[in-house]
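Need tokens for this chain, all 254 residues.
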Amino acid sequence: MIFQEMLTNKQIKLINSLHSKKGRKENDLFLVEGEKSLLELIKSDFVVDFFVICESQPALAHKISQVSKAPIYLLEEENVQKLSTLVNNQIGLAVVQQKKFPSFKIQDRYTIVLDGIRDPGNLGTIIRICDWYGFKQLVLSDDCTEFYNPKVIISTMGSFSRIEFTYVDLPSFFKAHSEYKKIGAVLHGENIHHYQFPNKGFIILGNESNGIREEIMESLDERITIPAFGEAESLNVGISTAVIADNLKRFILS
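Here are the structure tokens for all 254 residues:
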């Protein structure tokens, strides 16, 4: 691999455009930043247009070159920082082609479903949790934050590369998959420690502020709650996802 030394103005303009949702949508591209995410990226089947790596990271550039055929541009750290969405990027970034999943089909007994999750950090954490607990797919309502938002990708720490996802109209989606129990995580439901999970279902988690929207609440088959033993008002949706996933996996394994 011959390392490149100079980005064209067109490439710089492209990278900057990927800081916005509009630019990502128009180009069907997104940014991957940071060493951990870049190393996970080259192990995946994502198609990379090119890498931009700090000159101070020759070992990383060499490692990438052993796996990927995409061009690698070596830039001074100052110039990489100007292109990055991160406050401090001393590693590099990649311009990557977005994946589409037109033939998305539910594969497992249980799938996490998100209703109106707006915070990129929360979505990234949930993607990482799904990866940790072996959930290969994620279903999101149409108004959830964008999967390829840089803050989401960074928060996943590379797990984005292993999760298949789809954005749907939830009522229509549930109607098309009526054989799956719709299990909502709410403040007042059955104690998850005593809950008997059905054979297969969707675990539904709602918006950070408002929870599951009313029209979805009305269609739930069952409702579960993580019991509180202290005085906190609620749990972060990412933490809730992890607690429920852990209880679900223990139930299945038992």
